[in-house]
Amino acid sequence: EAGVAQSPRYKIIEKRQSVAFWCNPISGHATLYWYQQILGQGPKLLIQFQNNGVVDDSQLPKDRFSAERLKGVDSTLKIQPAKLEDSAVYLCASSLLSGGVDTQYFGPGTRLTVL
Amino acid sequence: RKEVEQDPGPFNVPEGATVAFNCTYSNSASQSFFWYRQDCRKEPKLLMSVYSSGNEDGRFTAQLNRASQYISLLIRDSKLSDSATYLCVVKGFQKLVFGTGTRLLVSP
Fold first, then answer.
1. Residues B94, A41: C-beta atoms closer than 8 Å
2. What confidence tens digit (pLDDT) does each residue in A35-72 have?
3. What is residue B16's DSSP assignment?
């Protein structure tokens, strides 16, 4: 079974530029999560989708971050404009059910460096 | 106070040693608890769930103390391949909250 796919794997941009990440969850998984993991910290949930609806985006910096999951499958996360403190690994995860009880499977992540 | 707190380590142990990690959480209403493992520059992967009665999976034993709001992970007979960061994870309201992780280094 294919896992969660993410692209690109690495991205280097300058501050104030824009960047977008893509995630393809495991087939059939209704719930999709975007996490931000800063070096030395645990993953922090940015946004959770149930199919194509947002369940939780309370920790998403909405002035610069946006995410969508059109058609309830793939998802994109965008940062515009980027700041130095956005340098982190952006992890996408998916689970069959919602609520976090079901096992979440993580993709390999996108490592973002903002210069 | 952080929702989930862990000692970042690193814990340096020789092969064959027994090592234990603790984790405390602040939300007494938390219902589900997990340990995830994260290898260097890799994604987190579920190691095991933590049940109130305690549970064991091979060399790994997880325990939950609701009264004191802490979770533990015990690794017996450490292997070199156990070297990783171990993330304590607590299910809050519909979402998982991750600790910062405890780094384990097992040496020959």
1. no
2. 999 999 999 999 999 988 999 999 999 999 999 998 88
3. T
